[in-house]
Specification:
This protein has 394 residues and is of the alpha/beta class. Helices cover 34% and strands 20% of the residues. The chain contains 13 helices and 15 strands. A 6-stranded mixed beta sheet has the order 3-8-7-6-4-5. Helix 1 packs antiparallel against helix 7, helix 3 packs parallel to helix 4 and helix 8 runs parallel beside helix 12. The chain is globular. The relative contact order is 0.11.
Amino acid sequence: MNEFTLKYGCNPNQKTARIYMADGSELPIKILNGRPGYINFLDAFNSWQLVKELKAATGMPAATSFKHVSPTSAAIGKPLSEKMKRAYFVDDIAGLDDSPIACAYARARGTDRLCSFGDFIALSDVCDETTARIIKREVSDGVIAPGFTEKALEMLSGKKNGNYNIIEIDPDYEPAEQETRQVFGVNFEQTHNSIKIDRTLMENIVTANKDLPEDKKDDLVLAMIALKYTQSNSVCFARDGQCIGIGAGQQSRIHCTRLAGDKADTWYLRMHDKVLNLPFKDKLPRAVRDNAIDGYINEYEEDVCAEGNWQKYFSVQPEPLTKEEKRAYLDGQTGAVLASDAFFPFGDSIERAALSGVEYVVEPGGSVRDDDVIQAADRHGMVMVFNGVRLFHH
């Protein structure tokens, strides 16, 4: 198959749409179920590149949850703590600890459950039954992987009334060196972004603190690879083998940092005992529960603890999580890393990152205000790496 006709393009009015190989060769995929659309394939091919690179860099199975051509999170297959399993609602998944690829997806999906609603999934390894069991009960548009076990394929083929998109990709496929796209009838061409991201990019430490542990280098590599496939401008917070907050597509880098930092804070607070022990009503839909948790933590449109509201979600009225409790809990968080797809022009992003437990930073450097940014990092005792690598993605 060297061509596949899509239902439509980005929008229903863009009726003629297809993917194809310009040189007439075979597409590097098999569509095992469903009929993926234009945005599905953009997500599939970008997310596959991310997990393939992440596994190559770390040697561990990797997964990502994608929405509209940016990752909501990405993770490697480290085991989950019991608190994390509860926060991600996978504590009932039998055999989770025995499946690194399932652990990777549980982490990627669990980081930002609101943004992951209706995601496209990429797995670096064959999708097994344990991973399929997690995917099956979540709202998702599709999955791409180098293979599927017979049982996993059977389980996933039944999603969305049999229309769930399942794509198998040739893990050995490599794109052509030159890539092209067309905008408004004008052709753009450039070399494929094949820069290798690994620990060797973490050697130029510019701060007074030079202590960069090996596991933090892995987290910085993870964050950089995630940014390579995130719409610019973008920054990424990561910790313990997973992205915990991604801010993308903002014109201002400080707004990216604030967005990502707020997501990281929500990730931390979802493991607060008050959140873990919220008395949800039986059989509450998963998406409704996720929205209620977000509202409980962040006090958005609806006060879910208020009289007349709490009855929709909880069996008893929960105590609010106060601002003082949240700040005290967040002040106890440490060990996070921060990566940026271009230089930080001011120290404000570093100040915001410090509020979310960031101790390690990687960015290209090269701003006329580098000294200001380094001084901000030094004030907080951070380790900062300048690696000269920009990762703009559009």
